[in-house]
From TrEMBL, chains A, B:
<dbReference type="GO" id="GO:0003700">
    <property type="term" value="F:DNA-binding transcription factor activity"/>
</dbReference>
<dbReference type="InterPro" id="IPR012318">
    <property type="entry name" value="HTH_CRP"/>
</dbReference>
<dbReference type="InterPro" id="IPR050397">
    <property type="entry name" value="Env_Response_Regulators"/>
</dbReference>
<dbReference type="Pfam" id="PF00027">
    <property type="entry name" value="cNMP_binding"/>
</dbReference>
<protein>
    <submittedName>
        <fullName>Crp/Fnr family transcriptional regulator</fullName>
    </submittedName>
</protein>
<feature type="domain" description="Cyclic nucleotide-binding">
    <location>
        <begin position="1"/>
        <end position="88"/>
    </location>
</feature>
<keyword id="KW-0805">Transcription regulation</keyword>
<keyword id="KW-0804">Transcription</keyword>
<dbReference type="InterPro" id="IPR000595">
    <property type="entry name" value="cNMP-bd_dom"/>
</dbReference>
<keyword id="KW-0238">DNA-binding</keyword>
<dbReference type="InterPro" id="IPR036390">
    <property type="entry name" value="WH_DNA-bd_sf"/>
</dbReference>
<dbReference type="GO" id="GO:0005829">
    <property type="term" value="C:cytosol"/>
</dbReference>
<dbReference type="InterPro" id="IPR014710">
    <property type="entry name" value="RmlC-like_jellyroll"/>
</dbReference>
<dbReference type="InterPro" id="IPR036388">
    <property type="entry name" value="WH-like_DNA-bd_sf"/>
</dbReference>
<dbReference type="Pfam" id="PF13545">
    <property type="entry name" value="HTH_Crp_2"/>
</dbReference>
<feature type="domain" description="HTH crp-type">
    <location>
        <begin position="123"/>
        <end position="195"/>
    </location>
</feature>
<dbReference type="InterPro" id="IPR018490">
    <property type="entry name" value="cNMP-bd_dom_sf"/>
</dbReference>
Amino acid sequence: MLQDARPVTVPRLERLFEAGNLPAGVFCLKAGSIRIGIVADSGHERTIDVVLPGGTFGEASIFKSSEAPVYAQALIQSDLLCISNETILTGIQQWPEMATVFLELACTRINQLLAGMYVCCLRNAHQRVNDFLLKNAQPVGGSRIQGIVSLLVSKSVVASSLNLTPETFSRELHSLSDQGLIKVERALIHVYDLEKLRRQGIA
Amino acid sequence: MLQDARPVTVPRLERLFEAGNLPAGVFCLKAGSIRIGIVADSGHERTIDVVLPGGTFGEASIFKSSEAPVYAQALIQSDLLCISNETILTGIQQWPEMATVFLELACTRINQLLAGMYVCCLRNAHQRVNDFLLKNAQPVGGSRIQGIVSLLVSKSVVASSLNLTPETFSRELHSLSDQGLIKVERALIHVYDLEKLRRQGIA
């Protein structure tokens, strides 16, 4: 089936598809990064997901059951493979175990969206930033207390993925800096006390 | 496979499963109504979906890839069939076309969650209530202007499914009543001008 995959290159900040016009298939990202987002009539936006190399998206459109309200935009120049819905549906009939692979991808996506809904509806700004740092912190050496977060995309995209304005995201980071809990250095955030962040998140 | 389905009855307001302890399989609702919800540490809740007879839920747990943050609660006494994950996975190997059926269910769920995310992040309280009325209004006679919305669940559950407090939901309904656009009669909402609601929603 992979010989039927069509290579696609999308320049920085261009859109692969808009909300409304459903993607022609499932996309696999080879290099770059793709923002999946939703946009209101007012122009206000929210980032649902940032896809990194190795990631896939567009599974929900296989059956074209309804129009998805998402767009896909390249944050940097991105190389992808597109496997058309037609190829996938034919492939599933020929190799039915393929359906299981896509089903597993779809189930993972459902759980990810439910987690996103939880954040969006039930966590306040402070908790969202804490959660983000705790989830992405890599431990420094063998420490269970110190960690480091590498921002793979711009701060405004991170903010949007937490459904925060860039200003609110900055304010929360400043507040944590002022408490001596973190230090922001360009795309790196040093976390000095993961335990304390964890306790603050529960409270 | 259906002979392996286990009948389950859940009394009114009892929970079929809690967030964290993932459901043992896929559930199909025969009678009653089931609220799928998320709950914060603080106790604050949000209704994700209300499942009505004929509907299914629990698909995302088939592979147990991650814990879903949802609970399932019977709003009235409910009769269900539970098909265990094990039965489904064995069934898929025997009748691979079954995976396609579940894949289609999962894709529909993804699109539904994306639509919910859109509402939750990008529509204000007034727009959410308008959207709800427009989506659920049954036309009265041949009219394109008048419609009627039957509330199948309590107003507080509808409010929660729109991520609104019951108070905000009531306030929005009162405001529409005051404008002469709707009239609320117990579980029925008469909509007198669907066109005007539509125009207000875009603005």
